[in-house]
Amino acid sequence: MSKKIGLFYGSTTGKTEAVAQMIQEELGGDDVVTLHDMSQAEAADFDEYECLIIGCPTWDIGELQSDWDGFYQDELENIDFSGKTVAYFGTGDQIGYSDNFQDAMGILETAISEKGGKTVGYTSTDGYDFDNSQGVKNGKFVGLAIDEDNQSDLTDKRVKDWTAQLKTEFGL
Ligand SMILES: Cc1cc2nc3c(=O)[nH]c(=O)nc-3n(C[C@H](O)[C@H](O)[C@H](O)COP(=O)(O)O)c2cc1C
């Protein structure tokens, strides 16, 4: 177990992967954050870290991205997240999918916190326009909500602000 952070992401068309790389860079690069693509990750990979970042876009109207979906069905329930601090980010499309914006982030946060993970990295919904999201709990996003489809000009600042927040909340 090390203080190093494991960032686990799924990405079908590359947007979430690009955000994962930005987050890695802002937190100090490869020495601090190890990237794991969910198309290749295994349950045992999660055991290596006490701090985790989970990245998942929402696909197919409120569903997890396909690599995360397979893992969620088959493996997630066998992982013990107790003692782990977990931050979440997602990418989504608030105009095209206004009733399901960032649902995946909320689905994963619910499952992982039920298995003992402590959630950090909540953010305000100010500056977004959507009707419904499973990614919102108690009036806040459970993590960082990125919209490369409609607000890509805001991504850089959102990532910078959030990673500064995480440095405190992870105790880096
Ligand atoms: C068929 C399809 C369904 C989608 N469904 C949703 C959705 O339900 N909610 C949402 O927020 N975004 C949705 N999106 C937008 C994607 O989440 C967004 O483009 C995301 O950045 C893709 O990430 P990726 O490139 O890492 O796979 C959908 C996009 C497509 C093409």
State the CATH architecture. Answer: 3-Layer(aba) Sandwich
Q: Give me the Rg, rounded.
A: 14 Å
Instruction: Give the CA-based shape.
Output: globular
Mean of all residue-level pLDDT scores: 96
Helix content: 25-40%
The fold-level CATH name is Rossmann fold
Beta content comes to 15-25%
When the domains are counted, the total is 1
**Secondary structural class:** alpha/beta
Please describe the biggest sheet, giving its number of strands, its sense, and whether it closes into a barrel. 6 strands, parallel
Small ligands present: flavin mononucleotide
| Through-space gap between termini | 15 Å
- Per DSSP E runs of 2 or more residues, the count of β-strands stands at 10
Mind explaining what this structure looks like?
The protein is of the alpha/beta class and 172 residues long. The chain has one domain (2-169): Rossmann fold (3-Layer(aba) Sandwich). The protein has 4 helices and 10 strands. The chain has helices at 15-26, 66-74, 103-114, 155-169; strands at residues 2-9, 33-37, 49-55, 58-59, 63-64, 85-91, 118-120, 136-137, 140-141, 144-146. Strands 1, 2, 3, 6, 7 and 10 form a 6-stranded parallel beta sheet that branches. The protein has a two-stranded antiparallel ribbon with strand order 4-5. α1 (15-26) links the parallel β1 (2-9) and β2. The protein is globular and about 40 Å long. The chain starts with a strand and ends with a helix. Flavin mononucleotide (FMN) binds next to α1 and β4.
